[in-house]
Amino acid sequence: MEQLPKVVIKGIPSSSRAVIHADDSLGGTRYRLLVEGDGLREVIATYGVDGTRTRSNNTTEVEKTLGIEAARSTIIHEIAETMSGHGISVDRRHLMLLADLMTFRGEVLGITRHGLARMKESALMLASFEKTADHLFDAAYYGQTDEISGVSESIILGVPMAIGTGFFDLVHKVDWRPLAAPRKLIFDRSEFHVKLGDS
């Protein structure tokens, strides 16, 4: 008898709860099914479920089911929802930049020291985030070199970073010929001068 509540008769075993939500915000009543648990692939494959309107907040599961671009979209949506829930508005382009940084390797990487270590092999960039002494000691011990191509490394060393106006060098050919003697302006001639007090 104690085993009976654990038996799945119908549905998705990895989903623990489902709630029907009525949404009246767009005029007519629309119903949403909010599901707790995993199983995005099974939910989308369920008869009657519109896969184009199905969302998940599990970025890893979205990546495995729908691919890296869908995971990127999920990251943007979830950060925007979290921020707006606290009354904070963030320009969508900033969220897109963060999502691009987290997914540009073809897998979802977190903005943690482990994710950053997998993104780039820069000792200074890793040292600027967490465990500064450990990263610097390891870099010195293993003789690592750094190309100083990122923002963090450039700020640490006080050199212009390779973005915006620092992205390129300006080369100007200097002509060392002496400048021509300045010409007299037409109004410097005495015939154009008017003495005050003369009528």
From TrEMBL:
<keyword id="KW-0862">Zinc</keyword>
<dbReference type="GO" id="GO:0005634">
    <property type="term" value="C:nucleus"/>
</dbReference>
<protein>
    <recommendedName>
        <fullName>DNA-directed RNA polymerase</fullName>
        <ecNumber>2.7.7.6</ecNumber>
    </recommendedName>
</protein>
<keyword id="KW-0460">Magnesium</keyword>
<dbReference type="InterPro" id="IPR007081">
    <property type="entry name" value="RNA_pol_Rpb1_5"/>
</dbReference>
<dbReference type="InterPro" id="IPR015700">
    <property type="entry name" value="RPC1"/>
</dbReference>
<dbReference type="GO" id="GO:0046872">
    <property type="term" value="F:metal ion binding"/>
</dbReference>
<dbReference type="GO" id="GO:0003899">
    <property type="term" value="F:DNA-directed RNA polymerase activity"/>
</dbReference>
<dbReference type="GO" id="GO:0006351">
    <property type="term" value="P:DNA-templated transcription"/>
</dbReference>
<dbReference type="Pfam" id="PF04998">
    <property type="entry name" value="RNA_pol_Rpb1_5"/>
</dbReference>
<keyword id="KW-0479">Metal-binding</keyword>
<keyword id="KW-0539">Nucleus</keyword>
<feature type="domain" description="RNA polymerase Rpb1">
    <location>
        <begin position="7"/>
        <end position="123"/>
    </location>
</feature>
<dbReference type="GO" id="GO:0003677">
    <property type="term" value="F:DNA binding"/>
</dbReference>
